[in-house]
Amino acid sequence: MREDLLRGGGLLFTDSNVFALYRTQIEKYLGGVPVYVMQAGEAHKNEQTLFALLRAMSENGLRRNSTLIALGGGVVGDIGGLAASLYMRGISCVQVPTTLLAQTDSSVGGKTAIDFCGVKNLVGAFKQPERVLADPVFFETLPKREIRCGLGEIVKHGALCSAIFEKLWENRDRLFDLGFLGEIVPMNIAFKASIVRQDPYERSLRASLNLGHTTAHAIELSSSLSHGECVLLGLILEGKIAERRLGRDGEYGKLLDELCLRALGSMPKFELSEETALCALHDKKNRAEGKVRLTLSRSLGTFEFLELPFGEYVKELKEVGSC
Ligand code: NAD
Ligand code: GLY
Hints:
By secondary structure, the protein is α/β, with parallel strands linked by helices. Helices cover 50% and strands 15% of the residues.
């Protein structure tokens, strides 16, 4: 595999935590391949890291037929994919996702990005990976908090896909169990891949995957919570807005909230401040000046968009924020 992957030369891109945990294996399987290690964390998903990586690719002589291997969570995957799309106008990228979130969501579908000017994923490109190598062995070193983050996107997929929802509900007492995750990960990859195949550039159907994400991104930018935790909060809060504005199916809403709360463990401390609302106003998914665009789900497996004038969104957030 090593020769196959790196026929034209290549570089392994990873983060400081993954490198510390898997250094021996990297040396064993990819010895001799240059490695660029970024500081772990969303705070480093920025232009400095992107350009430092591009520099490392150039200094290591990567060519048009070279391969960038992105070994890590969604942060590494998003930056690595973007660098691969930019370098020489595009070289091959192999994604090796090491978090639950990255295996079930971010490594599938070719969205790449960095955060820029205080907006999540403002600068990015669509760049389908050459391959995605997802191995559940990586979950053995994942802290519980990172499993929770992955469950955020998995529960979101559940809201859109009844088979995943049923599987989650049947297994609600063992959401963190590695055996259960081994069963649910392939279902999530297949579901996400089917959406991406139908709408790779998010012209319509793929936007369903933004469920809960406008408020999630806003909380993520204005708190110290992780992306997946914010997705669970976004699903709960925007779910309440769907209840108030669209008359969401009550039974479905109750079960979805219960799954979110079980994944969260307990409600994390967070504040819905003016800054949170402003982050939502600057979200890149918005289409009209002064309006916040939400992707909501009225019943299991459905989605629709609601555009709220900023003032109304703030009012809704205040009302549902105390839930
Ligand atoms: P992350 O990449 O920051 O990883 C979370 C933490 O886990 C990091 O500290 C990392 O070092 C550590 N880690 C990674 N693998 C590990 C392992 N096997 N064992 C122990 N620790 C490990 O975060 P994430 O939750 O994987 O991804 C979140 C990012 O993904 C966000 O930036 C989000 O915007 C992005 N995202 C992108 C898409 C997409 O379609 N491209 C979809 C969803 C999320
Ligand atoms: N994570 C949303 C998407 O890939 O479209």
